[in-house]
Every structure is written in C-alpha cells, then in structure tokens.
Design a protein that fits this description.
By secondary structure, this protein is of the alpha+beta class. It folds into 3 domains: 264 residues, Spore Coat Polysaccharide Biosynthesis Protein SpsA, Chain A (Alpha-Beta Complex); 65 residues, no CATH class; 105 residues, Jelly Rolls. 24% of the residues lie in helices and 35% in strands. The chain contains 12 helices and 30 strands. The strands form 7 sheets. It has a 6-stranded antiparallel β-sheet with strand order 20-21-22-29-24-27. Helix 4 packs across helix 8.
C-alpha cells in the first residue's frame, strides 16, 4: 500500500531579498546551507520518513537539474512537474495536483515551500499527521505558526471551531498588518500563515474550479497536454499561459469555506531576508553570525559572510555584510528587507550581477568567469561525471581548452580526442564542437575565449541531451 501523504514541493522562487547570495540563476533554496544541507535538501529530508511517499517537485527546466544534483547528494528520488513560465503559486500547485491526481485523486498532498527553515522536524511531522484526517475529509489544512513576536511580514490566521485531532476551522485570513495590529493579533491568539498546507488532489481541483473556473480550465488542459518522460512532466506552455497569475492564498484559501488550520510551534521561518536569517542562525556571545573567512572585532548583532577574501568587521552593530566574489552587500540589519530595491536598480541598468552569479550552474556542471577584457574571456569549467555539453558552434568567438584535471572527450568537427591534464584543444571560429566527461570523476579545464562578442547567446546548439533551446 502506498504511503498516505505525498509531498508537493514548490521550487521556483528567486528570493531577491537575500541578494547577493540568492539570485535568479541560483536561488536561496539551493544556495543557503545550514548544518551542511541546503534548505531545499532540508525540506526533502523533513518529509522522507515512512509516512510520506515520493516527492513531486514543481520547478522550471533551469532549476530541475540543480534540484536533481542536490537530491542525488542526499540519496532521494523525486518526480518533477516543469512550469514553462512562472504563474505564481495557484496555477503551479493545481497543475501538480492534476498530475498527482491522475494516479490517485484522493492522495493527500503536503504542499511545502522549498525555501523555509524548520528547526524542530519532529514537531512539524506531528502537526502534519494531526491534520491528515481533516485533509482526507476534504478540508484544506493550513499550518499556522504560533507567533514568537508581533511580526509585520507575515499574514495571520484566526482559528475557529475544533474539527478533529487539533485541526480547527479557519475563521478568517488577514493580510500583513502594521505593528499595532500585529500586537493585537498576537494577544488575540492569531497564528502566522506559513503558506504550507495539505489537501487531497481532488479537493484542490474542485476548489480551484469553483473559485477560478477560467484558470482551472487552462491549468487542467496544460496538464492533459503535458509532455511526459520518466519522472518528468512538462506542462503545455500555450495552455498554461492562459491561467491567471495568482497566489494560492488569494485564488483559493481566502475564498473557500473548507479551510482548516493546525497550530504549530516548530522553529519555522520563511528566511525571507537577511535579518530573519540572522535571527534563526546560531549566534556567538555578542549576537554575531559569521560564515567563511571572517574576523569580528568589537561587533554586535551582525551577520557577516564571505565566500571569497578575508573580511574584517570592527566597531559596528546590527550590520549585514555579504561578500561574494563579484558583489558585496553592506546594509543595516533592520532594513535588510529593502535589499530587493538594489536588485531592481541593477536590473534597470542591465547589470548581470542582479540575477547571475559568477559561478553559473548548468545541467552538465558549472563554469566561472575568472578574467575578461574587451575581446577575451577566461573561464574555469567543471564537467560532472557523464556530463555532456551540447554539440554547438559560435559565430563570434574561437576557444582554447586546457584540461587541468580528469580526462575530457573533445569533439572538433569530425575529430574526437581524449585529453588529459596539460593537453590542449583549439576550437576555431564557427567549428562544430562538444565537450564531455566519459569518466566517473569531474573534469576541470580552463577555457580562453577570443572574439568580438562573448555573450552566452552566441551559442547555436545542434544537439543537446538536456533539450535546451
């Protein structure tokens, strides 16, 4: 008999409030690691017990391969539903429910954000099991967090009459309050809305059809017309685009009469900005959190992280200092929720640092730009075991590859060669070529590009096992 609960993991957000660590190319659910695991991995490990079935992950094509690599690190298998474009949480969740419901319309789906932190996993699992009878009975069971302070960054839930096993009917949802209202909500026993909930596939589909009939038809059609391969369902782009871009709260939760809530205290945080990350991290005696090569002197209540040079902080309080190889952030900890304004400004001026790390992940591995000029660029490239770049050509640049680790298989025109460390390949302008790793250990090389244009869009893919455009 199958496990009673199927985790449905939302994994499409970018988390710009945690820039520069979290960016479009590698968002916080993958980039933020606590206790050795990314928060995406922690989410999966939290629902890997015997009570849970095979996870279903909702994401896009770009994040799918990052998710697969991180799943392999923790030895968990999952299925994927791929969004062709972001349409907010309601279409994504209901599309995944339609896919899961094809196998069993009554399967309870535990809908979780992939970028939340939970410190007490046992309390979380206890709450999930407490809400299971109500979910099986047709309720949409949210998990309301018992507030630790009058936070203004969360919506709130007022619970009503008791249903079963600690689940209560929802009396009302309220939007993010100002400080005064938040204090009253906490005094009156209202709960934070975590955004995580559980319901059967059938209930989700019924409620979406009732409250959003036009979008429901579009999402259902997108699932019906989806392209399926083992473990992966790619939603139909044309049909999915017709669904209105709405959150699950606005589309269903705030409208349904079938909402229930289970109160929960589990050390939860949505890790929505640097201040929240500081608050849930282990602090030293002065209230500081440090990551990487960091020296603190006469500093209090700071969060300082460096993934590059030694970073020294002296004589300050309540600062966020984030040092990446290509970007540095310094902000007042209490104003860290405003960091998204920096990202918006960078995007307006066309700065690639807004969305792209200098270390760029690809299905086959990753690359990092280490130097560049007007007509040249140097990259460090690592190809994972069995990784294979597309068969491609360039219209504006030639390339030189020097292998420094492992054995690379290199195709240039009709010639295929195996290159070992300290061996070199020249890729002339316009030549059809491919790089792959046939072995079981990573291949690393240095690539020098020379040409009048060096952008990533100067790639004509002729053949690609990852089915990229």
């Amino acid at each position: 008999m199958s496990c009673p609960i199927r985790p449905l993991i939302l994994c499409g957000g970018a988390g710009t409030r945690l820039w520069p660590m979290s960016r479009e190319s590698y968002p916080k659910q993958f980039a933020l690691r606590v206790g050795g695991y990314s928060i995406f991995q922690q989410t999966l490990l939290r629902v890997s017990g015997p009570e849970f079935g095979r996870p279903l992950i909702i994401t896009n094509q770009a994040y799918r391969f990052i998710a697969e690599q991180q799943l392999a690190e923790i030895d968990i298998l999952a299925d994927f539903v791929l969004e062709p474009a972001r349409r907010d949480t309601a279409p994504a969740i209901v599309a995944a429910a339609a896919v899961a419901g094809q196998l069993d319309p009554d399967v309870p789906l535990l809908v979780l954000a992939s970028d939340h932190q939970v410190r007490d996993g046992e309390a979380f699992r206890t709450a999930v099991l407490a809400g299971l009878p109500a979910a099986k009975a047709g309720w949409l069971v949210t998990f309301g967090i018992r507030p630790t302070d009058p936070a203004t960054g969360y919506g709130y839930i007022e619970a009503g009459e008791m249903l079963a096993n600690g689940a209560r009917a929802v009396r009302r949802f309220v939007e993010k309050p100002d400080a005064e209202r938040a204090r009253h909500y906490v005094m009156d026993g209202l709960l934070w809305n975590s955004g995580n909930f559980m319901a059967s596939a059938r209930t989700l589909l019924e409620e979406y059809a009732l409250h959003q009939p036009t979008s429901s038809a579009a999402v259902t059609l997108a699932a019906e017309r989806a392209k399926a391969s083992p473990g992966v369902v790619a939603l139909d782009a044309a049909a999915y685009a017709e669904a209105e871009q709405l959150s699950i709260d606005y589309a269903i939760m705030e409208r349904t009469v079938r909402a229930a809530v289970v109160p929960l205290a589990c050390g939860w945080s949505d890790v929505g900005n640097w201040d929240l990350l500081w608050s849930v991290s282990d602090q030293d005696g002065a209230g500081n959190v440090s990551r990487g090569e960091v020296v603190l002197s006469d500093a209090q209540r700071c969060y300082v992280s460096s993934d590059g040079p030694l970073t020294s902080v002296h004589g300050v309080e309540d600062l966020i200092v984030i040092v990446n190889k290509d970007a540095i952030l310094v902000t007042d900890r209490h104003r860290s929720g405003e960091v998204k304004q920096i990202v918006e400004g960078l995007r307006r001026t066309g700065r690639q640092e807004a969305d792209t790390h200098c270390k760029v992940y690809r299905p086959w591995g990753w690359y990092q730009v280490t130097d560049f000029g007007d007509d040249f660029q140097v990259k460090r490239i690592v190809v994972n075991p069995k990784g294979r770049l597309s068969l491609q050509k360039h219209g504006h640049r030639a390339e030189h590859w020097v292998v420094v680790r492992g054995t690379a298989q290199v195709t240039v025109g009709d010639k295929v060669s195996l290159l070992t460390p300290n061996e070199h390949a020249h890729i002339p302008l316009g030549a059809v070529h491919r790089l792959e790793n046939p072995g079981n250990t990573p291949v690393e090389l240095v690539e020098v590009q020379c040409g009048d244009y060096l952008g990533e869009d100067d790639i004509v893919r002729l053949e690609d096992i990852y089915q990229r455009a």
